[in-house]
Amino acid sequence: MSREDENSEKPEERTVEQLIAEAEALRKKPKALDTALPAPEERKRVRKAYGLTQEGLAKLLKVHRITVSAWERGAYDPTGTTRDDYLALFAHMKRDIGEGDEEGGEE
Fold it and tell me: Angle at the Cα of 91 (from 30 to 20), degrees rounded to 5?
């Protein structure tokens, strides 16, 4: 049996539940990617208004403080799952400081 044959069998070892979980995870990712990132100045303003330091935000997202600084300077943007986590956290911070999405909310 060649190594290719061994490797080709591994996907068959997954359960149906595992396949469904993987499909669900893939299906949800495009929704988060469609959400625009806030401008760098807005990133910094909301973080500060929420009461987090760059170090604190970095710890939550499991990145370096320098990375958060670069995002807030506009040097580059978060990507991948870090981007998804950042967008979710940013939305939470905005809601918590009273600036969240008002659509669907009660007044």
Answer: 35
